[in-house]
Specification:
- The complex is a heterodimer of chains A (299) and B (316).
- Chain A has 299 residues and is mainly alpha-helical.
- Chain A has a domain of 206 residues.
- Helix content of chain A is 74%, strand content 3%.
- Chain A is globular and about 60 Å long.
- The two termini of chain B are 14 Å apart.
- Chain B has one domain.
- The radius of gyration of chain B is 19 Å and the shape is globular.
- The chains are: A mainly alpha (299), B mainly alpha (316).
- At the A-B interface, helix 4, helix 9 and helix 11 of A face helix 4, helix 5, helix 6, helix 12 and helix 14 of B.
């Protein structure tokens, strides 16, 4: 009996361990998806990549932190998303729209400059020290899954990602604005000629994209330590997601985010030193196999 | 012939003048500027020949620096071999990555350059047993390197001459390359890749070769950096450095092959003037990048060329 005990216990523990890893991968994949889909939205309308997107994630987390410490988590979440939405609208009005006739290189350089400025602004306002945010009381417990426990808050993050993915698909498929967005991401010029005000559309879409970055940053805050450079590594992973999924593809981004979320998590657990290399290797392989990304077979 | 004479004159004048008239502080500044000028030349050359922007040349720079520091400290190989490997390994890596990433458009390519460099940054940060994380490595360099005393590489006065000569050789090599049929071919591909293909050229390999060459130049700068400082930290791989190199290239202008090097010099003068503001250096870099990109797309070298054109002087 003494010999059989550990053996018998090992299998359920292994299953539970795998389940936990899978869920943790979904958490990171979910955050990554919310951030990456904002990049995809902006790319669809403006044909540029927002290098400052990671800073929007960071700003979202810090605004959430400050408001949370005064008025609680839910107020922090709401204010953060609103603030970032406004920043997004301003970004479109003062950066993307004036530069829309320039080479995409120009816009990339400008948003990269913004990335450096915003990172420094966050450092100046909130300081370099790591800050932490507590999850809201209602989500602070754990649930028991096949013998091990898992934080409720992490499940909630997965839920939010599913809601965002579902809501966005419904909006893109069934609303008039969604139709315009899809049309414009296929061919902005023709869409404009059909009488769609692409400038207004783009302001809406960039605002939503930035708001999603704020959402992602705020809900990530209780999971990560806040530092001015926190947006860096997730921005990189979301770039890999967007390119691997096929630049401009929503479905591709979703699949890629889920895969890279899992790989990232497994990497952190099993080869922490080289975890950052894994998404990259995957990306290179995908690009050799399908140069247009996962979603575009032939391109 | 004229080209060789110009480079010889610039090389001799640049190497001698600061040593004759400069203060130690100026020499330190100029040595840093010369190393960064080489890095910026690599970044600018990629823009000039391929029309592509790399946000990750710090990756190749840092890789070169880390290979020198790691192999010297751990005694993996003779220092001469290490120096060679420190340039060759990033070059080969860039060639392979380029072959995969250049199939995409310029936007996706730029995103991935940043991703690659940042992955190496994280690697250096996390793999503590190899790279000692955030604290970096104090390289145990041998007393003699390539037949020269170590102090030659670590004194600003002599190291400036070394870096300046390397910079001149790089610029000379690139100007010869640009004038060659290969240079013309890559420009043609930059202007219209499809048309170049229709004429019957393979386009992927020349583009990857240019990317690899620009990575080699960045790695060379990283090697000089490691020899001069004797100390490397993950900051040499960080996107802040890639951004600085881009700013230098953009400020200097990429139409002339020497533009980015000029940009590096201006950059370090600005940094010196900024003095107390260096705490907010990233914001200054970012702001400068935005302003120059929007208002002065030709950069300093472009403006000089335009001025000389107006005054009736022909430039190369």
């Amino acid at each position: 009996m003494a010999g059989a005990g550990p053996l018998r216990a090992a299998r359920p523990r292994l299953v539970a361990g795998m389940l936990i890893q899978l869920l943790n991968g979904l958490v990171y994949g979910g955050l990554l998806y919310i951030l990456a889909v904002g990049l995809v939205l902006i790319f669809g309308l403006r044909r540029v990549v927002n290098f400052a997107h990671g800073s929007l994630f960071t700003v979202g987390a810090y605004v959430g932190f400050t408001v949370t410490s005064v008025a609680g988590f839910w107020a922090g979440l709401a204010v953060s998303v609103c603030v970032l939405t406004v920043i997004g609208a301003a970004l479109d009005r003062f950066v993307f729209r004036p530069l829309q006739d320039e080479d995409p290189i120009v816009t990339m350089l400008v948003t990269f400059g913004l990335l450096l400025v915003l990172e420094d602004a966050v450092r100046t306002i909130w300081g370099k020290e790591f800050l932490t945010v507590q999850p809201p009381a209602i989500l602070s417990g754990v649930v028991h899954l096949t013998g091990t426990s898992f934080p409720v808050y992490r499940l909630a993050v997965i839920g939010v990602a599913i809601l965002v993915a579902g809501g966005l698909s419904l909006w893109l498929r069934f609303s008039r604005v969604g139709l315009y967005v899809r049309a414009s991401s296929v061919d902005p010029l023709t869409t404009g000629m059909q009488g769609v005000d692409t400038d207004r559309l783009s302001a809406t879409v960039v605002a939503i994209g930035a708001g999603l970055a704020g959402l992602s940053g705020t809900i990530a805050a209780p999971l990560l330590a806040l530092s001015p450079s926190m947006g860096g590594s997730i921005l990189i992973d979301s770039f890999v997601v967007v390119v691997t999924g096929g630049l401009g593809s929503f479905t591709g981004a979703f699949i890629a985010a889920m895969v890279i979320g899992q790989l990232h998590n497994l990497g952190v657990v099993f080869v922490p030193e080289a975890a950052s290399m894994i998404p990259l290797v995957l990306m290179v392989l995908v690009l050799i196999w399908r140069p247009g990304g996962l979603a575009k077979a032939g391109a | 012939m004229i080209r060789i004479a110009v480079f010889l004159a610039a090389g001799a004048a640049g190497a001698l003048l600061p040593n004759l008239f400069g203060s130690p502080l100026l020499l330190t500044l100029l040595t840093q500027a010369a190393i960064n000028a080489i890095l910026a030349t690599g970044v600018g050359f990629l823009v000039r020949q391929n029309g592509l922007v790399s946000f990750g040349h710090a990756g190749f720079f840092g890789l070169g620096a880390y290979i020198v520091a790691l192999s010297a400290t751990n005694g993996w190989m003779p220092i001469g071999v290490a120096l060679l490997l420190a340039v060759v390994a990033p070059t080969v890596l860039a060639l392979l990555l380029g072959a995969a990433m250049l199939r995409l458009g310029g936007v996706a390519f730029s995103m991935l350059t940043l991703a690659v460099a940042q992955a190496f940054y994280e690697l250096a940060l996390r793999w503590r047993s190899l790279a000692n994380g955030d604290d970096g490595i104090a390289a145990q360099l041998p007393d003699r390197i390539l037949g020269l005393d170590l102090s030659v590489f670590q004194q600003p006065g002599s190291m400036f001459v070394v870096c300046w000569i390397v910079l001149m050789l790089v610029l000379f090599g690139l100007s010869v390359l640009i004038a060659s049929p290969f240079g013309t071919l890559t420009l043609a591909i930059r202007e219209n890749e499809e048309r170049a293909r229709f004429i019957g050229y393979r386009t992927l390999l020349p583009r990857a070769a240019i990317y690899a060459l620009s990575a080699a130049i960045a790695a060379l700068a990283g090697v000089l950096f490691a020899l001069y400082n004797g100390f490397v930290t993950p900051n040499v791989l960080y996107w802040g450095l890639s951004g600085e190199a881009l700013v230098m290239a953009v400020v200097g202008g990429t139409r002339a092959v020497w533009g980015p090097a000029l940009g590096a010099l201006l950059f370090f003068l600005l940094k010196n003037v900024a003095g107390d503001l260096t705490e907010h250096w990233p914001a200054i870099i970012g702001g400068t990048l935005i302003i120059v990109t929007v208002l002065l797309p030709r950069g300093a070298s472009g403006s000089i060329a335009l001025l000389m054109q107006r005054m009736g002087v022909r430039t190369a």
